[in-house]
């Protein structure tokens, strides 16, 4: 029942097939899972209609876990601190159980955020249905940030009703959420630096555009455009994919609250058939637009909330299309439009961690090692010394980025990254 406990979880992702869209981009086909997920969603709806009660004296969390084990899901025991990477068969990192910062106050701050949200839980429960019964589950949620949705002609802030706005204005909570967002973004930069560069570059172009300086960002210094606050008492998502997010971008989920992660609150990735223990204060990063995911409920004496950070897919298209809709670009700048269509097929390789596996810095180092061998062919001792030195240089260059960004923020990230090369 327990998945292998190494720092890398590997999957064949056999259910994922990619098909060209009409403009040469890629979309993911997950038909094989759709039926199974539909049944699970139906079960979750029935359990909710039944008041989410325990099942014949058995805790609802235990019942949910038993169902997963009987369907062949595997348990990942995770302390919520040491990072574990999600890696496909080609060695591409496509997600990470990132952990939490080496900061003694982190857990307390996250619990303070939970307490602030708990004070608003009753008011949140009275929000309209769109907030309390949505495709992600049956708990109150409020989205804030910047977006560009189908039908929009400009990037804009998500519109909040008065009651929603009142529930997301607490300054202390916003401050804590900003520090969490900083950790989310730093972690993406550590595990998928090219992806983070892509996200940051796009959002900075929008932030600097003279027509959009009035947008209100969740974190004015951050790059993730959207945030969802999921209110107590028992946040547990039903199987879903966040299809409006950018397809290959990672979404960050931070779980908070007083609950025992051994007995409930697991993060389930259905494409991998894994149920991951997900303790309070921990961060998980996944490409949420194409992986089916959900949570196991917590025990009825436990309480759980969460905060998620993401970027809207529409924003990237809008920015790439010279801050226009695609149809407007085709009319106004046909050459630019043709160029954008050409670029679409290149995007499928983005989001991986190539900086650590094929860096340009490794090529000169290999050339240096090769020349050294040729020059010193008659002196085997010197050859061995130079080869050892070259090997050390390769390791140092490849890990240098993580040394700068990761050592302070992500405990264990260095050894994990090196171990995966
Ligand atoms: Fe999600």
From TrEMBL:
<keyword id="KW-1133">Transmembrane helix</keyword>
<feature type="transmembrane region" description="Helical">
    <location>
        <begin position="363"/>
        <end position="382"/>
    </location>
</feature>
<feature type="transmembrane region" description="Helical">
    <location>
        <begin position="403"/>
        <end position="420"/>
    </location>
</feature>
<keyword id="KW-0812">Transmembrane</keyword>
<keyword id="KW-0472">Membrane</keyword>
<protein>
    <submittedName>
        <fullName>Uncharacterized protein</fullName>
    </submittedName>
</protein>
């Amino acid at each position: 029942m327990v998945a292998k406990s190494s720092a890398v979880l590997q999957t064949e992702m056999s259910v994922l097939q990619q098909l060209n869209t009409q403009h040469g981009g890629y979309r993911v086909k997950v038909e094989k899972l759709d039926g199974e997920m539909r049944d699970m969603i139906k079960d979750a709806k029935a359990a909710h209609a039944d008041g989410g009660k325990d099942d014949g004296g058995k805790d609802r969390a235990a019942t949910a876990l038993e169902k997963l084990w009987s369907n062949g899901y595997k348990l990942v025991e995770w302390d919520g601190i040491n990072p574990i990477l999600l890696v496909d068969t080609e060695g591409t990192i496509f997600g990470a159980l990132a952990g939490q910062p080496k900061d003694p106050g982190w857990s307390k701050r996250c619990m303070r955020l939970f307490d602030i949200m708990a004070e608003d839980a009753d008011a949140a429960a009275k929000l309209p249905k769109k907030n309390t019964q949505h495709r992600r589950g049956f708990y109150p949620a409020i989205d804030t940030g910047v977006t560009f949705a189908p039908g929009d002609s400009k990037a804009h802030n998500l519109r909040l009703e008065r009651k929603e706005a009142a529930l997301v204005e607490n300054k202390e909570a916003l401050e804590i959420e900003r520090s969490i967002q900083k950790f989310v973004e730093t972690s993406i930069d550590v595990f998928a630096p090219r992806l983070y560069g892509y996200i940051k570059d796009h959002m900075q172009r929008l932030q600097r555009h003279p027509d959009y300086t009035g947008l209100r960002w969740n974190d004015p210094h951050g790059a993730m455009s959207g945030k969802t606050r999921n209110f107590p008492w028992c946040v547990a998502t039903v199987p879903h994919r966040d299809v409006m997010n950018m397809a290959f971008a990672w979404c960050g989920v931070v779980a908070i609250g007083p609950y025992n992660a051994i007995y409930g609150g697991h993060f389930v990735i259905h494409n991998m058939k894994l149920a991951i223990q997900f303790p309070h204060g921990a961060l998980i990063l996944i490409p949420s637009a194409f992986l089916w995911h959900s949570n196991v409920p917590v025990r009825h004496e436990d309480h759980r909330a969460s905060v998620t950070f993401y970027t809207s897919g529409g924003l990237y298209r809008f920015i790439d299309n010279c801050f226009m809709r695609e149809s407007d670009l085709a009319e106004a700048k046909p050459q630019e439009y043709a160029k954008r269509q050409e670029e679409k097929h290149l995007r499928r390789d983005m989001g991986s961690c190539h900086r650590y596996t094929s860096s340009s810095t490794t090529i000169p180092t290999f050339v240096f090692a090769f020349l050294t061998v040729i020059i010193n062919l008659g002196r085997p001792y010197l050859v061995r010394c130079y080869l050892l030195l070259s090997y050390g240089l390769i390791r140092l260059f490849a890990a240098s980025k993580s040394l700068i960004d990761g050592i302070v923020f992500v405990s264990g990230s260095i050894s994990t990254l090196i171990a995966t090369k």
